[in-house]
Amino acid sequence: MLVALIVTILFTVSYLGLYTAYDKQTKSLKLSMLMDVLLFSKGLDHSLVQWNKVISLVGLSIMSVALLPNSSKWLFGENKELLYISIYLQTVHAIYSCFKYYGSNNIPYITTFVNFFQGMYCVYIYY
Q1: Burial class (CB in 10 A: 0-12, 13-18, 19+), 20
Q2: Which of 21, 38, 39, 48 is the most buried (most CB within 10 A)?
Q3: How far apart are CA 17 and CA 14, in angstroms?
Q4: Angle value at C-alpha 38, between 85 and 84, nearest 5 degrees
Q5: d(Cα 34, Cα 26) in Å, to the nearest integer?
Q6: For the chain, what is the HEC assignment?
Q7: Distance CA 75, CA 116 (A)
Q8: pLDDT higher at 62 or 101
Q9: CA–CA separation, 38 vs 55, rounded Å?
Q10: Is pLDDT above 90 for 10?
C-alpha cells in the first residue's frame, strides 16, 4: 500500500505544481496561482473546483499507470491498490461534480434526456 500512496502523492504534487500553477495567458508557471488554491485566497469554491480537477486527473493517471503491462514489477505488485485509490478518487470527483454542476450546461437536468432519446428514436424510424 505504501508504493501506491507514494505514486498517488507524486502525481498529486506534480498536477498541483504543473497544472494548477500554470497560467494560460502567460504560458508560464505562477506560484501565486498555486498559493491561491492552497490558501483559499480566491475563496472556498475556487479552491474546491481546482482540487476537483486535480483529483480527476490524478485518478485517471494512476489508473493508467496501474494498467500498464508489466507495471506490477516496478509497483511491487500494488496494482490493485493503485486501482482502488483511482476508483475512490474518481468517485469523489463524480460526487462533487454532480453536486456542483447538476442542472448547468455541464450536467443538464435528467428530464432533458427524454428529448435526446426521442430524437434518437426518430432517427431510428427514419432509417
Answers
A1: buried
A2: 21
A3: 5
A4: 0
A5: 15
A6: CHHHHHHHHHHHHHHHHHHHCEECCCCEECHHHHHHHHCCCCCHHHHHHHHHHHHHHHHHHHHHHHCCCCHHHHCCCCHHHHHHHHHHHHHHHHHHHHHHHECCCCECCHHHHHHHHHHHHHHHHHC
A7: 44
A8: 62
A9: 14
A10: yes
pLDDT, tens only, 14-55: 999 999 999 889 999 999 999 999 999 999 999 999 999 999
Q: Which residue has the cell 475556487?
A: 46
From the number of C-beta atoms within 10 Å of its C-beta (0-12, 13-18, 19+), residue 30 rates as middle
- Helix 2-15 and helix 79-101: axis angle, to 10°? 40
Length of the chain: 127
